[in-house]
Amino acid sequence: MSAPSRAVSDSELLDLAALRQMSFTELDALYRAAPRPASISDLNGDAIGAMLAWRSPRTGPVASLLRSFGSSGAFPWEGKTFTSEGNERGKGINRINLLGKRRWFPFATRFDASFLDGKPTFVLDYSGPGNPPLIRQIVDEVREVAPRLFMGPAALKIGGRPRPILFFAVSLQ
Predict the structure, then answer these.
(1) What is the pLDDT of residue 115?
(2) Is residue 109 a part of any domain in this protein?
(3) What confidence score (pLDDT) does residue 63 get?
(4) Which of 102, 114, 118, 132 gets the most CB atoms within 10 Å of its CB?
(5) Tens of pLDDT along 34-70?
(6) CA-CA distance, 52 to 153, in Å (whole number)?
(7) CATH code for position 50
(8) Alpha-carbon gap, residue 156 to 134, rounded angstroms
(9) 4 domain-assigned
């Protein structure tokens, strides 16, 4: 008699490549169904990043070009580095390969309510004084969509309210 087969959950099939194939609407639904990380320290380390999908009502050539550029080796954003500072807060910085490897645009991390659905999420807040004015208007948030794979919206504050512009993901190997 053969061993019983184990069902494979959808989250076990998710990786950065699978997320890159999803539409903005599919990523939005996946994000809304995902839980926040259990601990601030769950994201500690160097995470590989991926720009996934721009918020756009069109799927034409510009959207396709942006998606292709985001998944190409020429895209300068490599990911984020996270460091917990206790159970409730942490910090991080973006790793960018532009005119050499750089660490730019620091952020603070915390758990808070999502600007998308009000549920608990892991927030990346760029409002610190070390960032240029435009970067201080960015707020990202992530939830865990598969083990050690986190994704969520990047938003720009307009009139004090975050407006989602794209989905991104980070993976800790």
Answers:
(1) 96
(2) yes
(3) 55
(4) 114
(5) 999 999 999 999 999 999 988 765 555 555 555 565 5
(6) 10
(7) 2.40.128
(8) 9
(9) no
Reply yes or no on whether the pLDDT at 116 is more than 70: yes
Range of the domain at 150: 12-171
CA dihedral 133, 51, 38, 163 (to 10 degrees): 50
The pLDDT, as a whole number, for residue 55 is 74
Map 31-81 to HEC letters.
Answer: HHHCCCCCCHHHHCEEEEEEEEEECCCCCCHHHHHHHHHHCCCCCCEEEEE
Query: Whose structure tokens read 């954003």?
Result: 77
The pTM (predicted TM-score) of the whole model is: 0.85
* pLDDT (average), residues 152-158: 95
Instruction: Give exposure, 18-44, as e/b (b: 16+ Cβ within 10 Å).
Output: ebbebebeebbebbeebebbeebebbe
**Residue 87 maps to a domain:** yes
Q: Locate the DSSP E strands across the chain.
A: 45-54, 77-84, 89-97, 101-113, 120-125, 138-146, 149-158, 161-171
Tally the domains of the chain. 1
CB 167 within 8 Å of CB 31 = yes
| CA pair distance 95, 73, nearest whole angstrom | 14
Token pair of 14, please? 């998710």
